[in-house]
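Morning, I've got a small favour to ask if you have a moment. It would help a lot if you went through both lines with me. I owe you a coffee for this, so here goes:
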Amino acid sequence: MERVETWEYPIEAVREAVSNAICHRNYETASNVQIRIFDDKIEVWGCGLLPEPLTPEKLKKEHKSILRNPFIGKCFFLIKFIEQWGTGTNRMIEECVKHGLPEPLFEEIAGDFVVTFRKGITEELLKERGLNERQMKAVSYIREKGSLTNKEHQVLFDVSKITASRDLKLLEKEGIVKSIGTGRRNLKYELK
């Protein structure tokens, strides 16, 4: 008969992002590590870009750690805030997926490295964004099948090419899907 705490975001992943922001920040700049909390996401802003040759895409794979601040890193390792060098971003991804959330976004924005944790796309969230029934079914289809093309959208929902384009562009504008590929024939939409 004890209360069970259920976190909206995996606490281990958020802790890792904050620890990384502190360990890897550029202390020569006057800015601060920031944690920005929104209705549908949490952003952890570090200070400074990733050290070369790291890129946001490389952080999703096995990579080496380039410690900008080795003394701070060693302290965090000794107090067990960091387990092993170069594995934190992979653990963030694993924890989010295990928690049923999308993978975190790793981006460089305005000269800073940013980790964004996003809520899962729920029917409630889609309704709040003003999506119609057809658009919500398109999101469900993408979740189940992995992607959706304009042509598939037309056939599934018996709509014109213009209506399908409008639906998919709206989902992209709302940050729910992203377009993959080039040209009209190769373009498909996946969940963001």
In short: The mean pLDDT is 86. The first strand starts at residue 34 and ends at 37. The chain has two domains: 11-118, 123-191. DSSP finds eight helices and seven strands in the chain.
